[in-house]
Amino acid sequence: MNSLLRSSLLATALVSAAYAAPQSFDFKDPKGVNNVQFHLDAPLESITGTATGISGTVVFDTAAPESVTGKIVLATKSLTVGNPLMAEHLHSANWLDVAKYPEITFEAVKVANVKTKGAQVTADLTGNLTVKGVTKELTVPVTFTHLADKLGARLGDAKLKGDLLVLRATFEINRSDFNIMPGQATDKVAENIVLTLALAGAAQK
Amino acid sequence: MQPTNRLSLALRLTAATALLAVLGLWVATGAHLGWTQTSKVVVQHDEVTGIDFPVREKTFVAGVEVLAVGAGFAAALAAASVFTNRRRA
Q1: pTM for this entry
Q2: How far apart are alpha carbons A195 and A50 in whole angstroms?
Q3: ipTM surpassing 0.85, yes or no?
Protein backbone atom coordinates (compact mmCIF):
# COMPACT_ATOMS: atom_id res chain seq x y z
CA MET A 1 0.00 0.00 0.00
CA ASN A 2 2.83 2.31 0.97
CA SER A 3 4.69 1.64 -2.26
CA LEU A 4 1.49 2.30 -4.26
CA LEU A 5 1.02 5.61 -2.45
CA ARG A 6 4.68 6.52 -2.99
CA SER A 7 4.42 5.67 -6.69
CA SER A 8 1.27 7.76 -7.06
CA LEU A 9 2.88 10.72 -5.31
CA LEU A 10 5.99 10.39 -7.46
CA ALA A 11 3.92 10.24 -10.64
CA THR A 12 1.89 13.30 -9.57
CA ALA A 13 5.08 15.19 -8.78
CA LEU A 14 6.61 14.26 -12.14
CA VAL A 15 3.50 15.34 -14.06
CA SER A 16 3.33 18.61 -12.10
CA ALA A 17 7.00 19.25 -12.74
CA ALA A 18 6.53 18.57 -16.44
CA TYR A 19 3.68 21.08 -16.65
CA ALA A 20 5.36 23.70 -14.48
CA ALA A 21 8.70 23.53 -16.26
CA PRO A 22 9.81 26.71 -18.01
CA GLN A 23 8.87 26.72 -21.66
CA SER A 24 10.69 28.46 -24.47
CA PHE A 25 8.28 30.40 -26.67
CA ASP A 26 9.34 31.25 -30.20
CA PHE A 27 7.92 34.59 -31.39
CA LYS A 28 8.61 34.10 -35.09
CA ASP A 29 5.05 34.18 -36.29
CA PRO A 30 4.03 32.16 -39.36
CA LYS A 31 0.58 33.77 -39.36
CA GLY A 32 1.74 37.40 -39.51
CA VAL A 33 -0.39 38.36 -36.53
CA ASN A 34 2.40 39.62 -34.26
CA ASN A 35 2.69 43.35 -34.56
CA VAL A 36 4.17 46.51 -33.15
CA GLN A 37 2.36 49.77 -33.72
CA PHE A 38 3.95 53.15 -33.19
CA HIS A 39 2.21 56.45 -32.80
CA LEU A 40 3.57 59.96 -32.71
CA ASP A 41 2.08 63.41 -33.01
CA ALA A 42 2.71 65.69 -35.96
CA PRO A 43 1.12 69.05 -36.90
CA LEU A 44 -1.00 68.04 -39.91
CA GLU A 45 -1.97 64.57 -38.71
CA SER A 46 -0.62 62.12 -36.16
CA ILE A 47 1.56 59.38 -37.59
CA THR A 48 0.65 55.78 -36.97
CA GLY A 49 2.91 53.07 -38.29
CA THR A 50 3.12 49.32 -38.11
CA ALA A 51 5.79 46.64 -38.05
CA THR A 52 5.47 42.90 -38.35
CA GLY A 53 9.05 41.61 -38.68
CA ILE A 54 9.19 40.14 -35.20
CA SER A 55 11.27 37.27 -33.85
CA GLY A 56 12.83 36.26 -30.56
CA THR A 57 12.41 33.86 -27.70
CA VAL A 58 10.86 34.18 -24.26
CA VAL A 59 11.32 31.58 -21.53
CA PHE A 60 8.24 31.59 -19.34
CA ASP A 61 7.25 29.40 -16.42
CA THR A 62 3.58 29.52 -15.45
CA ALA A 63 4.53 28.40 -11.93
CA ALA A 64 7.20 31.09 -11.60
CA PRO A 65 6.41 34.00 -13.95
CA GLU A 66 8.89 36.22 -12.09
CA SER A 67 11.68 34.16 -13.66
CA VAL A 68 10.79 35.21 -17.21
CA THR A 69 13.72 35.87 -19.53
CA GLY A 70 14.02 36.50 -23.22
CA LYS A 71 14.63 38.81 -26.12
CA ILE A 72 12.30 40.24 -28.74
CA VAL A 73 13.76 41.39 -32.04
CA LEU A 74 12.09 43.72 -34.53
CA ALA A 75 13.37 44.03 -38.10
CA THR A 76 13.54 47.80 -38.73
CA LYS A 77 12.86 47.31 -42.45
CA SER A 78 9.37 46.09 -41.57
CA LEU A 79 8.46 49.45 -40.02
CA THR A 80 6.15 51.29 -42.36
CA VAL A 81 3.58 54.07 -42.62
CA GLY A 82 0.86 54.85 -45.18
CA ASN A 83 2.74 57.67 -46.89
CA PRO A 84 5.60 56.35 -49.09
CA LEU A 85 7.77 59.48 -48.77
CA MET A 86 7.41 59.39 -45.00
CA ALA A 87 8.32 55.68 -44.99
CA GLU A 88 11.43 56.48 -47.03
CA HIS A 89 12.43 59.18 -44.53
CA LEU A 90 11.76 56.80 -41.63
CA HIS A 91 14.21 54.26 -43.08
CA SER A 92 16.84 56.85 -44.01
CA ALA A 93 20.15 57.47 -42.24
CA ASN A 94 18.78 60.56 -40.48
CA TRP A 95 15.99 58.66 -38.80
CA LEU A 96 16.23 54.90 -38.17
CA ASP A 97 19.09 54.12 -40.60
CA VAL A 98 17.74 50.64 -41.30
CA ALA A 99 20.70 49.76 -43.52
CA LYS A 100 23.15 50.21 -40.64
CA TYR A 101 20.82 49.18 -37.79
CA PRO A 102 18.60 46.37 -39.10
CA GLU A 103 17.21 45.43 -35.68
CA ILE A 104 15.52 46.92 -32.65
CA THR A 105 15.85 44.63 -29.64
CA PHE A 106 14.43 44.38 -26.16
CA GLU A 107 16.11 42.00 -23.72
CA ALA A 108 14.49 41.27 -20.37
CA VAL A 109 16.64 41.85 -17.29
CA LYS A 110 14.30 41.65 -14.31
CA VAL A 111 10.62 41.49 -13.42
CA ALA A 112 8.72 43.17 -10.59
CA ASN A 113 5.14 43.58 -9.36
CA VAL A 114 4.09 40.20 -10.71
CA LYS A 115 0.35 39.58 -10.36
CA THR A 116 -1.35 36.42 -11.56
CA LYS A 117 -5.05 36.16 -12.34
CA GLY A 118 -5.96 32.88 -14.00
CA ALA A 119 -3.97 32.53 -17.20
CA GLN A 120 -3.00 36.20 -17.16
CA VAL A 121 0.12 37.61 -15.56
CA THR A 122 0.81 41.31 -15.30
CA ALA A 123 4.24 42.61 -14.38
CA ASP A 124 6.70 45.45 -14.72
CA LEU A 125 9.39 44.14 -17.00
CA THR A 126 12.75 45.89 -16.95
CA GLY A 127 14.98 45.34 -19.91
CA ASN A 128 17.49 46.80 -22.31
CA LEU A 129 15.98 48.43 -25.37
CA THR A 130 18.41 48.94 -28.25
CA VAL A 131 17.39 51.31 -31.03
CA LYS A 132 19.82 52.68 -33.63
CA GLY A 133 22.75 51.25 -31.70
CA VAL A 134 21.82 53.00 -28.45
CA THR A 135 20.89 50.83 -25.48
CA LYS A 136 18.76 52.17 -22.63
CA GLU A 137 17.28 50.35 -19.67
CA LEU A 138 13.57 50.89 -19.29
CA THR A 139 10.68 49.38 -17.38
CA VAL A 140 7.60 48.37 -19.31
CA PRO A 141 4.23 47.22 -17.96
CA VAL A 142 3.50 43.91 -19.68
CA THR A 143 0.71 41.36 -19.72
CA PHE A 144 1.44 37.70 -20.41
CA THR A 145 -1.43 35.38 -21.26
CA HIS A 146 -0.63 31.68 -21.22
CA LEU A 147 -2.87 29.70 -23.58
CA ALA A 148 -2.36 26.03 -22.83
CA ASP A 149 -2.71 23.55 -25.73
CA LYS A 150 -3.71 26.22 -28.25
CA LEU A 151 -0.86 25.81 -30.74
CA GLY A 152 -2.75 23.28 -32.89
CA ALA A 153 -5.85 25.49 -33.01
CA ARG A 154 -3.77 28.48 -34.01
CA LEU A 155 -1.93 26.74 -36.82
CA GLY A 156 -4.96 24.73 -37.93
CA ASP A 157 -3.30 21.38 -37.22
CA ALA A 158 -4.97 19.42 -34.41
CA LYS A 159 -2.00 17.04 -34.24
CA LEU A 160 0.32 19.85 -33.16
CA LYS A 161 0.66 19.97 -29.39
CA GLY A 162 1.90 23.03 -27.63
CA ASP A 163 1.13 26.22 -25.78
CA LEU A 164 0.93 29.86 -26.74
CA LEU A 165 2.14 32.88 -24.82
CA VAL A 166 0.56 36.23 -25.69
CA LEU A 167 2.57 39.28 -24.72
CA ARG A 168 1.03 42.74 -24.68
CA ALA A 169 2.67 46.04 -23.77
CA THR A 170 2.23 49.75 -24.33
CA PHE A 171 4.97 52.18 -23.45
CA GLU A 172 6.53 55.45 -24.52
CA ILE A 173 10.06 56.31 -25.58
CA ASN A 174 11.75 59.56 -26.48
CA ARG A 175 13.44 59.44 -29.89
CA SER A 176 16.21 61.79 -28.74
CA ASP A 177 17.27 59.16 -26.17
CA PHE A 178 18.04 56.82 -29.06
CA ASN A 179 19.85 59.29 -31.30
CA ILE A 180 16.92 59.62 -33.72
CA MET A 181 17.25 63.25 -34.87
CA PRO A 182 17.85 64.37 -31.25
CA GLY A 183 16.26 67.75 -30.60
CA GLN A 184 15.62 68.24 -34.32
CA ALA A 185 12.44 68.52 -36.40
CA THR A 186 10.42 68.76 -33.19
CA ASP A 187 8.03 71.15 -34.96
CA LYS A 188 7.33 68.44 -37.56
CA VAL A 189 7.33 65.26 -35.50
CA ALA A 190 6.94 64.83 -31.75
CA GLU A 191 9.83 63.47 -29.72
CA ASN A 192 7.70 60.98 -27.81
CA ILE A 193 6.74 57.77 -29.56
CA VAL A 194 4.08 55.45 -28.16
CA LEU A 195 4.77 51.79 -28.89
CA THR A 196 2.10 49.11 -28.64
CA LEU A 197 3.08 45.45 -28.87
CA ALA A 198 0.79 42.46 -29.33
CA LEU A 199 2.74 39.27 -29.85
CA ALA A 200 2.11 35.56 -29.59
CA GLY A 201 4.87 33.01 -29.10
CA ALA A 202 4.60 29.27 -29.55
CA ALA A 203 6.13 26.41 -27.56
CA GLN A 204 5.73 23.03 -29.19
CA LYS A 205 5.56 20.00 -26.93
CA MET B 1 -11.01 89.98 -68.16
CA GLN B 2 -12.31 88.30 -71.33
CA PRO B 3 -9.72 86.24 -73.28
CA THR B 4 -9.08 87.73 -76.71
CA ASN B 5 -7.19 84.82 -78.29
CA ARG B 6 -7.40 81.06 -78.54
CA LEU B 7 -4.25 80.32 -76.56
CA SER B 8 -5.45 82.36 -73.61
CA LEU B 9 -8.85 80.68 -73.73
CA ALA B 10 -7.25 77.22 -73.94
CA LEU B 11 -5.02 77.97 -70.97
CA ARG B 12 -7.97 79.10 -68.86
CA LEU B 13 -10.02 76.05 -69.78
CA THR B 14 -7.07 73.77 -68.97
CA ALA B 15 -6.60 75.56 -65.63
CA ALA B 16 -10.28 75.12 -64.74
CA THR B 17 -10.23 71.47 -65.83
CA ALA B 18 -7.04 70.77 -63.82
CA LEU B 19 -8.51 72.40 -60.72
CA LEU B 20 -11.79 70.50 -61.05
CA ALA B 21 -9.95 67.22 -61.75
CA VAL B 22 -7.69 67.50 -58.71
CA LEU B 23 -10.61 68.57 -56.51
CA GLY B 24 -12.66 65.66 -57.84
CA LEU B 25 -9.81 63.21 -57.16
CA TRP B 26 -9.33 64.55 -53.64
CA VAL B 27 -13.05 64.34 -52.82
CA ALA B 28 -13.45 60.93 -54.51
CA THR B 29 -10.62 59.43 -52.44
CA GLY B 30 -12.07 60.66 -49.17
CA ALA B 31 -11.25 64.39 -48.88
CA HIS B 32 -8.34 63.44 -46.61
CA LEU B 33 -6.94 66.43 -44.69
CA GLY B 34 -3.58 64.72 -44.12
CA TRP B 35 -0.74 63.54 -46.36
CA THR B 36 -1.26 61.20 -49.32
CA GLN B 37 -1.53 57.54 -48.36
CA THR B 38 -0.74 54.62 -50.66
CA SER B 39 -1.78 51.97 -48.16
CA LYS B 40 -4.34 51.76 -45.40
CA VAL B 41 -4.53 49.64 -42.29
CA VAL B 42 -7.40 47.21 -41.84
CA VAL B 43 -7.54 45.77 -38.33
CA GLN B 44 -8.28 42.06 -38.12
CA HIS B 45 -8.83 39.86 -35.09
CA ASP B 46 -7.11 36.57 -34.35
CA GLU B 47 -9.66 34.39 -32.58
CA VAL B 48 -7.18 32.06 -30.89
CA THR B 49 -4.81 34.62 -29.39
CA GLY B 50 -7.28 37.52 -29.13
CA ILE B 51 -4.77 39.79 -30.87
CA ASP B 52 -6.03 42.62 -33.07
CA PHE B 53 -3.54 42.95 -35.89
CA PRO B 54 -3.14 45.46 -38.72
CA VAL B 55 -3.17 44.31 -42.33
CA ARG B 56 -1.93 46.84 -44.89
CA GLU B 57 -3.96 47.08 -48.07
CA LYS B 58 -2.86 49.01 -51.13
CA THR B 59 -4.99 52.05 -51.76
CA PHE B 60 -4.64 55.63 -52.93
CA VAL B 61 -5.89 58.47 -50.78
CA ALA B 62 -5.01 61.89 -52.16
CA GLY B 63 -3.64 64.19 -49.49
CA VAL B 64 -3.46 67.95 -49.16
CA GLU B 65 -0.15 68.07 -51.08
CA VAL B 66 -1.91 66.66 -54.17
CA LEU B 67 -4.56 69.33 -53.78
CA ALA B 68 -1.87 72.02 -53.38
CA VAL B 69 0.12 70.86 -56.42
CA GLY B 70 -3.07 70.72 -58.55
CA ALA B 71 -4.22 74.14 -57.38
CA GLY B 72 -0.72 75.56 -57.99
CA PHE B 73 -0.64 74.11 -61.51
CA ALA B 74 -4.10 75.58 -62.24
CA ALA B 75 -3.04 78.96 -60.86
CA ALA B 76 0.10 78.94 -63.02
CA LEU B 77 -1.97 78.19 -66.13
CA ALA B 78 -4.46 80.94 -65.25
CA ALA B 79 -1.58 83.42 -64.75
CA ALA B 80 -0.07 82.38 -68.08
CA SER B 81 -3.43 82.95 -69.78
CA VAL B 82 -3.58 86.50 -68.41
CA PHE B 83 -0.02 87.09 -69.60
CA THR B 84 -0.69 85.82 -73.14
CA ASN B 85 -3.95 87.77 -73.26
CA ARG B 86 -2.13 91.02 -72.37
CA ARG B 87 0.60 90.45 -74.96
CA ARG B 88 -1.96 89.97 -77.73
CA ALA B 89 -4.22 92.88 -76.65
Answers
A1: 0.83
A2: 10
A3: no
